[in-house]
Amino acid sequence: MVDQIGNCRILQEIGSGGMAVVYKAVQEPLGRTVAIKALKPSIAMDSGFAKRFEREAHFMASLQHENILHVHDFVKDRGTMFIVMEYVQGIDLYDLLEITPRLPVDIAAIIALQVARALDYAHFRGIIHRDIKPANVMLSHHGEVKLMDFGIARDDRLTDLTETGTGLGTPSYMSPEQILGDKLDFRSDIFSVGIVLYQMVTGRKPFVEDDARTVMQKIRLDRYTSPRKINPSVPRTLEHIMGRCMEKLPANRYPTTQALIDDLQDFLAARVPINHNARLVMYLREVGVITDAKAEEILSASAPNRMRRGNGDRRMITQMWAVQGGLGAFVVIAGLAVQGLSGRLGGDPDQFAAETGAPVVPQRAGHLRFVVDPWARVEIDGQEVLTTPSAREIALPPGLHFVRFENPYFQAIDREVWVREGETDVIEETLAEIAATPEGETP
Questions:
Q1: Cβ atoms of 258 and 214 closer than 8 Å
Q2: Is 185 a catalytic residue?
Q3: Which residues of the chain fall below pLDDT 50?
Q4: Which residues contact 256 (CB under 8 A, 6 or more apart)?
């Protein structure tokens, strides 16, 4: 292993592939931790692999976007080439799916949204990635999503270095036109995003080789199994998004990458009322990718400044961010008691506390109101608070709360809701009917 590349001191090897080796290094004198992708010495400098390697460096250096891995430098030395890149401490999507093959729908949609944003930025500059797959999507410990590896990307202004048939992409994630060798545009990447999104919510790829057909034949000719048949918790809205991405004809897919972004944003707006990076951090904590202490450190730093005061407040922040029940049901119950007795006591929570000694919801509270079709019993943090329809507003301390809607004739819905101080949010839900059980079967 080399010790020094340019002004970078090598610390350790962190990965290796057929064409390149990746090192962790420190860029001096800045003291910045970087990753260095080194072309293997066995690859000739005038080979197609080397030309694609250099092309990747130029592509990535020209794409300065928060969801694309940044390139700091490109070095030719000792008869080979090196790309000095941003170092991201985290896990790629491929390895995450090895740990937990099926992701929650909101997590999958957040990842797809960030990948789509990276692609929209690249597509606007005429660059098509052509190799969207889980191994090329990185999730940092801070909840950032980074698109990597533009090694076979194509720029419409330049000649194509992959027309000879080498390195065209990964078959399971190719679009039909990519398999046929047709001219590609941005809609090929959109097809691949649909495949990755399908895999994230179902735990399997939509097109899998069998004895009758290869995966490439299935992508071109076959219809995939509905994701809701594999995972009934997939909302129809998300199923529709995947379906439009994976239309066989490019003309039937999203007309722009921004249109895909808009649909994913609309889907997430009602389901993830907190910062998307924070939600990813919470999930990485759940599955053991990062420790409780690391998650607390990251989430506490991102919480509003007014809430970061001393150890007691840090514990409160962790409780509000963490994906766990029991945020303090006694506070919710006390809040309801205040609401029920506010008329008798002139609406003064402090007077109620003085007379009863009961805890109350602090004045720095937010409120929730519920509109549910057709109706539901509403639980907050495990405590039933009302049955809709109701005009009541529930006072809660600011932070993350867990809401459940139950109706014996419909599927229950669980939501995470972020309550904002001094604001009233209206939560609207439409319950889905429970599927009928065929005769003779036990539900």
A1: no
A2: no
A3: 158-167, 305-362, 437, 439-443
A4: 120, 186
Report whether 241 contacts 191 (CB < 8 A). no
Q: Is the separation of the CB atoms in 220 and 190 below 8 Å?
A: no
Six-digit token string for 364: 């720095």
- Confidence (pLDDT) at 1: 67
Distances (CA, A) of 357 to 208, 212, 339, 361, 397: 64, 73, 16, 13, 19
* In the block, residue with structure tokens 């090192």: 23
Domains and CATH numbers, the chain: 4-86 (3.30.200.20), 90-276 (1.10.510.10), 291-324 (no CATH), 329-430 (2.60.40)
What contacts 376, CB < 8 A, 6 or more positions away? Answer: 370, 387, 388, 405, 406, 407, 410, 413, 429, 431
CB atoms within 10 A of CB 294: 16
Name the DSSP letter for residue 385.
E
Residue identified by tokens 């101080």 is 421
Q: Count how many residues are written for the chain.
A: 443
Give the count of beta carbons closer than 10 Å to the beta carbon of residue 115. 27
Residue owning tokens 């093959």? 101
C-alpha span between 48 and 54 (Å, rounded): 10
Crossing angle (nearest 10°) for helices 186-202 and 105-124: 170
Number of H helices, E strands in the chain: 14, 18
Kindly state the tokens that stand for 81: 């080439």
Torsion of CA 128, 85, 173, 266, to 10 degrees: -70
Alpha-carbon separation of residue 344 from 71, 349, 395 (angstroms): 66, 11, 18
Nearest-CA neighbor of 417 among 373, 368, 372?
368
pTM comes to: 0.68
Classify 123 as helix, strand or coil.
helix
Using alpha carbons only, give the angle 413, 367, 328 rounded to the nearest 5 degrees: 70
| Cβ(175)–Cβ(220) below 8 Å | no
Q: Which of helix, strand or coil describes residue 262? A: helix
Q: How far apart are CA 316 and CA 175, in angstroms?
A: 48
Contact of 110 with 133, CB cutoff 8 Å: no
Asked whether the beta carbons of 168 and 182 are under 8 A apart, the reply is no
Q: For residues 210 and 233, give the distance between their C-alpha atoms in angstroms, rounded to a whole number.
A: 27
* Candidate list 106, 131, 149, 381, residue with the active-site label: 131
